[in-house]
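Methods — Computational structure assignment.
A single polypeptide chain was analysed. Its primary sequence is given first, followed by the predicted tertiary structure written as structure tokens.
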Amino acid sequence: MEQLKKIIRSRNKKTESPMEYKILNELYKYDDLQFETQYKIDQYRLDFAFPKYNIGLEIDGNDYHSSEKQQIRDQLRDEYLLKIKGWKIYRLEGWFCSRHPEIAVIKVLEHIPEVHKSKRYIHSRRQMLVYFVRELHNRGHRELSEKIMKDIT
């Protein structure tokens, strides 16, 4: 039990928000996935980085990233990291990461080939598809959603 508490404390130090913590826990489920937290590139810091692929992941919470001024800063930062440093930055909304961390990480992992054959990735992709089909259904596209569900089950 003490070992588990140490792991939890060390993970909390690697993230700055509960949303980041949820994503961190999800990423740890992928064996051999190499990533870093709070990764520095020049004057910037990424929430999560996959340096082997020059991919960064930012979790945008409403408190900090909702103002127009901050959105412009984020856009300029992402353009700098892409055009000058060659990094592709993916942004995920905090509310979605909190509710669906398993699905949220798929957006980034789609660009990291080493995980594509893992059972965890395949399961998460299926979960993502089911989620979006349910959203279709809830938004009035019942016939289409029922057809897709039949095809995937």
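Note: Residues 78 and 84 are 10 Å apart (CA to CA).
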